[in-house]
Design a protein that fits this description.
It contains 9 helices and 5 strands. The protein has helices at about 1-20, 45-55, 65-75, 95-100, 120-130, 140-180, 190, 195-240, 245-255; strands at about 35-40, 60-65, 80-85, 110-115, 135. The chain has a 5-stranded parallel sheet, sandwiched between helices.
């Protein structure tokens, strides 16, 4: 909920800033949050205009002329955002959205649909299939810029959250490794270097793990010492009981119970 609230605040700030700026610097200002974008449109003119505008804003842009080419590119490299047309040959935008949603590796790639279709049913269908946003052609450049910035910020926050959860998983795995005596203290060096609460937790965990191993080493040493002591006692007893004198005494006791 905090992440969602932060995103909405960020989006509102972008909308306000862009609504109050002068028109002239639009083509030269760097993007607030530049990313790797995929523009998918069967019309070469539309692709060129959109990609040129986005590149001037600081984004890196790759283009695809149809849905199948777009899916091939998405499987081959990483993109931060897809700008997707709907009416295309070979594979239309609806099918691209369906395949993205069905893919474990691609389902979280954000998509903004930019299409000449403006029927509410088509818009709803795109959102239901996983699109983050929808703009009708011809699109407003200021609005598109704001939507792209908000979408990239949402992705950045989502990526941070996923990376954080992976670190938590590493810490959980390390706890299990301590129990099975397979923990490697150096495996958490990078996490312990973090300056946030997770880094502090990792440092405490590593310290505790070292203490556990040190205690186990002391216990093993003590058990080994006890074993040696018991063996020495057994040898001493044997040295006495195996003598002829001790055996003779035992025989006397057995004869006179």
């Amino acid at each position: 909920h905090k992440i969602a609230a932060a995103v909405e605040t960020f989006k509102a700030l972008i909308d306000y800033a862009l609504a109050t700026e002068e028109v002239t610097p639009l083509v030269s200002r760097p993007a607030l949050n530049a990313g790797m974008l995929l523009v998918v449109d069967d019309n070469v003119g539309n692709r060129d205009v959109l990609s040129s505008m986005l590149e001037r804003q600081g984004h890196t842009v790759v283009t695809a002329e149809n849905g199948q080419r777009a899916l091939d590119l998405l499987r081959a490299q990483t993109f931060d955002l897809v700008l997707l047309d709907i009416l295309m040959p070979e594979l239309d935008g609806f099918e691209v959205l369906r395949q993205l949603r069905a893919s474990d590796t691609l389902r979280h790639v954000p998509v903004i649909v930019i299409s000449a279709l403006d029927d509410l049913d088509d818009v709803a269908r795109c959102i239901e299939l996983g699109a983050e946003d929808y703009l009708s052609k011809p699109f407003d450049r200021v609005l598109l810029r704001a939507r792209i910035g908000a979408s990239l910020e949402r992705k950045r926050l989502r990526d941070q959250e996923l990376a954080y959860l992976k670190q938590v998983d590493r810490l959980t795995y390390a706890a299990s490794a301590v129990e099975t005596d397979t923990f490697e203290p150096d495996s958490l060096v990078d996490m312990a270097a973090r300056t946030d609460s997770l880094g502090q937790l990792a440092r405490v965990f590593v310290h505790m793990a070292h203490e556990v191993y040190a205690r186990e080493a002391r216990l093993k040493h003590e058990r080994f010492a006890v074993t040696i002591n018991e063996a020495q006692k057994a040898e001493s007893v044997a040295a006495i009981t195996d003598t002829d004198y001790f055996q003779a005494l035992r025989q006397k006791v057995q004869r006179h119970p």
